[in-house]
Amino acid sequence: MKSLKKFALGMAVAGLAATAAAAETVKIAYIDPLSGPFAATGTNGLHQYQFAADTLVNERGGVLDGQMFEIVAFDNKISPKESLIQLQVAIDQGIRYVVQGNSSGVANALTDAIAKHNDRNPDDRVLFLNYSAVDPALTNDKCNFWHFRFDAHADMKMDALTDVIAENEDIKKIYVIGQDYSFGKAVASAAVRMLTAKRPDIEIVGNELHPIGNVQDFTPYARKVVSSGADAMITGNWGSDMLGLGKAVIENGFSGPIYTYYAAADGITAAFGETGVGSLKLVAEGGNNPPSKPEAQEYVRAFKEKHPDGNISQSRITNVVQMLAMAIDDAGTATDVVQVANALEGMEFTDSLWSDNPMVMRPDDHQLIQEVHIYGHVPVEAPFDFDNSGYGLKYENSIVNAGADLPTTCEMERP
Fold first, then answer.
1. Confidence band (pLDDT; 50, 70, 90) for 1?
2. If DSSP codes are grouped into helix, strand and coil, which group holds residue 228?
3. Do 181 and 165 share a structural domain?
4. Domain residues for 226?
5. What are phi and psi of 134, to 5 degrees?
6. What distances in angstroms separate CA 8 from CA 3, 11, 13, 14, 129, one per listed residue?
7. What is the mean pLDDT of the chain?
8. pLDDT tens figures, 192-235
9. Closest of 156, 148, 150 to residue 319, by C-alpha
10. Of the candidates 291, 317, 310, 292, the residue with the CA atom closest to the CA atom of residue 389
11. Are residues 183 and 286 in the same domain?
12. What gap in Å lies between CA 238 and CA 36, rounded to an integer?
């Protein structure tokens, strides 16, 4: 009997220790591709999240009473079905914060599943912090209280791109091409709608979608672009699809500007090299290479020391980590995600590494309003280049509070 009492006491002490250890960690599930055709993008994003959590939160004492951020990786293989499996695994592990960004198809599946889970489990709720899935529907008709987007959505970015295109009188014909899923369709729809309004004289000589992640040879698509006589091209392609399409178009003789959403880093910058100069245009948030702020330059140098083959290519990741930390501190809790969400709503964030202009998490639809830029692909010195290639990005145009005047159809129900 005495030994049993000792065993029970030991178990109780162990349980208290485990509870204390759990209280010291705020786990964040990273659900993105770590294998397959988009593994490079997902792996680099994971490294950026881990570095941001360690550098911007943990090394500064964590949140609340010293709780540390821990990024827990889940490979979704870019599949919505696999993402839902990994989401359930994360929830079963007690994780209450989910970050994801690669593929709006995945984001649509996750936001629906999280909303349903939270309705069924009011004491076990989860927040979805979307850092890069930019289907406009996610903060419009499909909005919900549990979803926050930290990237400008596709329509906001297209609004900026088409402003620039409209000012270029040399552009008379445009070819629109993208991946066949919700984001690619949103890009095409916005391009047609906004170009028609801003430059009705521009002829859209092509508008097509291709299978996502399955095209091995983009030469047939490239030949159609070239034969159309287009002066410029618009694509929302990312990862290996951006690389394959862009390289094929240039190699088949296209010499006009290629307006893109994701034509940088993860091997894309290195592959284009000199051929991308004067051709690739990118709409995104963040800083120049090198960034203008000294602290951002030091941040990039430190990341490159830890990940020599990596890139700080998604500056919004640092915004996600910093704003979540601020919200948890403001709410006074990391476990009550309703209070954390309330703290995120309407938050003004002015501590970005990349910009002095304030960002606002719009409470109407949980869409971050921020400054975006049109960049050109240019030579850049190490360590501020991408892919150790000698090339990176430089501002050509900047838009403060991009898309703030675009309406939202969100009708949000709050708990």
1. very low
2. coil
3. yes
4. 155-290+372-399
5. -115, 25
6. 9, 5, 9, 10, 41
7. 93
8. 999 999 999 999 999 999 999 999 999 999 999 999 999 999 99
9. 150
10. 310
11. yes
12. 14
* 224 in a structural domain: yes
| Per-residue pLDDT at 126 exceeds 90 | yes
Per-residue pLDDT of 315-348, as tens digits, reads: 999 999 999 999 999 999 999 999 999 999 999 9
In a domain, 104, yes or no: yes
Backbone φ and ψ of 359, nearest 5°: -110, 150
- CA 87 from centre of chain: 18
Q: What angle do CA 22, 28, 29 make, to 5 degrees?
A: 120
CA distances from 302 to 55, 72, 179, 285 (A): 9, 22, 35, 21
In a domain, 253, yes or no: yes
Domain match, 232 and 328 both: no
Which residues have CB under 8 Å from 365's CB, separation 6+? 139, 140, 143, 408, 410, 412
Whether residue 17 lies inside any domain: the answer is no
Same domain (yes/no): 187, 329: no
Bridge partners (DSSP) of residue 219 are none
Number of domains observed in the structure of the chain:
2
In the numeric block, which tokens belong to residue 98?
Answer: 């989910």
d(CA 129, CA 340): 12
- Of 330, 349, 369, the one marking the end of a domain is 369
At 3, the pLDDT band (50, 70, 90 cuts) reads very low
Q: In the structure encoding, which two tokens stand for residue 131, read together? A: 């850092």
pLDDT at 7 over 50: no
272 in the same domain as 198: yes
CATH number, position 136: 3.40.50.2300
Same domain, residue pair 90 and 178: no
